[in-house]
Every structure is written in structure tokens, then in C-alpha cells.
């Protein structure tokens, strides 16, 4: 009987999903360490800046429209999903026309060299399409398809690069890495589109609902500003480290940030994507029991997984650094410890974040993100004067602690304002008494 309960609570599909997503993270780990082993620190630094800038610029292309469309999709009958996807795609076409030309400023001001400009624009379009397809598949509870898209987007191509770097010395270059990255993401987009094409398309006879799009823009715009603020922490930090300490230290920072961010990536892949749609649906149904149990599960799994992975990363990094045998990484391993703590706190902050998101309390999320960016800038400006190398990661810790505290207080406050939750709570207390 116990075995049956265990299988039901942790189905095979979820094991396959976690396996695919776990393989993706291992592939990214392997790629990162092999790049650090075979390429010069200057190439690692450039790769880190390019990855961070592409990831940040994605939000401009997507406009954070998913923050609106996901809730809309979860509250709409499945036979209307194709129409919502089409209308969202029409909006993205417009953002491409505006945002892509504007992004040339990155190269005009010298943040990135013109030599990587073609790759930047190809990768940002493909990455955005794959990201939005993945989000749609998650919201539609098609987790297996979402995991496959993620594996193709971030895992398989990284494994290919890692294997070929080991076997063929002649292809060990940043150019080859970027080429394979592009092919991998293009393949992921193809699989995601095939999955979306299986939707019921009878609803596409209706014309594009531009009023729905405009309403979404109004909802998403404040979210975009907030996201640009909080995600800016994961982009500005690299440029700031380069300015303060140079390319060699930036290479170490990129390596250790990749390790730390893998903890957050696994939380997204193994915890958040499975629980937050159910939390949103429970809130929409006003099912306080399911909402409460969902939030408790989210907290427990986030705490256990992030703590375990952080400790494991802190211990396992030492044999890896011995293998790399490059002083620039071993000399600055303390950066990893600080970043792991920062990501651990950031992961915990996502628990009240999803609670607020389910409640559609967008203002609280926006304020916390913008304020945390301000805290980061102020702390960085103060700490780097004393600790130039460690000031930026320490400022991240302070900023994420503020983020956790602000979101937690906002969540508890907003939860008390839900009368149907309080009513059931009082009923339970009366029953117990």
C-alpha cells in the first residue's frame, strides 16, 4: 500500500521530467567546466557576458507578457488556447520590430564587441521563442513536452559541445560553441511548435483580439519594469565585476555564477513548474485547502532541494578546481560560497512570490523587485570600496535578503485580505475546539 501511495504522489512522468531537466543541468555543468579547462579566461569572460546579455534582453522581446497570458490561459477552456497563443504571437511580432533594432545600442556603446553581434541577434530570437514555448507547455500542464524542449534548448547541444571538445582539439573555440548553441535552440523551437500545433484550432476563425493584447500590455508593463530590475542583478553584476577586477576575475565569477545559478535552475525545473500552476488554479477556485497545502509543499521542497544542492556544490567544487588546474579559479573560490548563499535566499523568495502571483498581487511583486535593485546598487557602491572582488556578490546577498523579507511580509498581508481563506481558517479552528 505504501508503494502505491509513493507511485501516485511521485508519478513516472515526473521522474522522466526531472531526469530530462537534471540531465540538462549536468550538461550545462559539463560544458561550463570544459570551457573553463580548454578556453582562455578572456573567452570565458566574453561567453559569460554574452549569455547574461542575451538572457536579459529576452525580457525586452517578451515584454513579460506571459505574466498576463499564463493566468488568462489557466482560466480559459482548452479549446480556446490556440486563439490565445496566436494573439500572443501577433504581439511578439510587433515587439521584434521595435526591440531588435534598439538592441544595437549594446554594440554601439561597447558592452559587447561587434564580432558577436550576428550570434547575439540569432540567439536572442531563438531563445525567446523556445522560452515562450516552454512557458506555454508548462501552463498547459504538458510537462513532458516542456522538459524535452528545455533539454534540447539547454542540454543536448551542451553535451555535444562537451563531447566534441574532448575528442576533437581542432574545434575548441567560442565560435563552435555559439554555432552548436544556435542549432540546439532551433531544434527545441521546432519540437515546441509541433506540440502547440496539436491544439484545437477551430477557434482561430475569430480575428485577433487586440483589446485583449492591449489589456495584457497594461498588466505586463509594470511586471516588465520589475523583472528588468531583479534580472538586472544577474547581468549588471558581471559587467561590474569586469570593471572592478578585470577579465580573469570575471572568468572565475562566470564559472561560479554558473554553478550557483544551476541551483535556481533545478528549483525551476524540478519544483516550481510542477507546483505553481496548481497553486494558481486553487486560488482561482477559492480552494483554500489546496492553496495552503500547495504553498507548504512549495516551501518544503524549495528549502530541501536548494539546501542540499548548495552544500553539494560547495563540497564538489574542490575536486573540479583541482582538475581545472588554473590558479585564477582556485584563488577566488570564496566567490562561489557567497553566490550559493545568495541563490539559496533568492530561491526561498520565490515561495511568497508565487503566492502573490497566484493572488494577482502584482504591485507587491513589482515594488519588491525595483526596491531590491536599488538596494543592490547602494550596497555594491558601499562594499566594493572595501572589498573590490567580493563586494558585488555580497551586495547580491543583501539584495536577496531584502527581497525575501519584503515578499514574505507582503504575502502574509495579502493572504489576510482574502475573506474566503479566513472564513475556512475560522471554521477549522472552531471544529478543532
TrEMBL record:
Alphabetically sorted, this entry's keywords are: Cell membrane, Membrane, Transmembrane, Transmembrane helix
Chloroplast keyword on record: no
Task: Quote the cellular component terms of the Gene Ontology held in the record.
Answer: plasma membrane
Q: Where are the transmembrane segments?
A: 18-38, 44-68, 89-112, 118-137, 144-168, 180-199, 219-241, 253-277, 298-323, 335-357, 364-384, 390-412
Q: Does the keyword Cell membrane apply?
A: yes
Q: How does it sit in the membrane?
A: Multi-pass membrane protein
Instruction: Report the locations given in the UniProt record.
Output: Cell membrane
Report the PANTHER family cross-referenced here: O-ANTIGEN TRANSPORTER-RELATED, PST FAMILY PREDICTED COLANIC ACID TRANSPORTER
Identification of the protein by name: O-antigen/teichoic acid export membrane protein
- Recall the taxonomic lineage recorded for the source organism: Bacteria, Pseudomonadati, Pseudomonadota, Gammaproteobacteria, Oceanospirillales
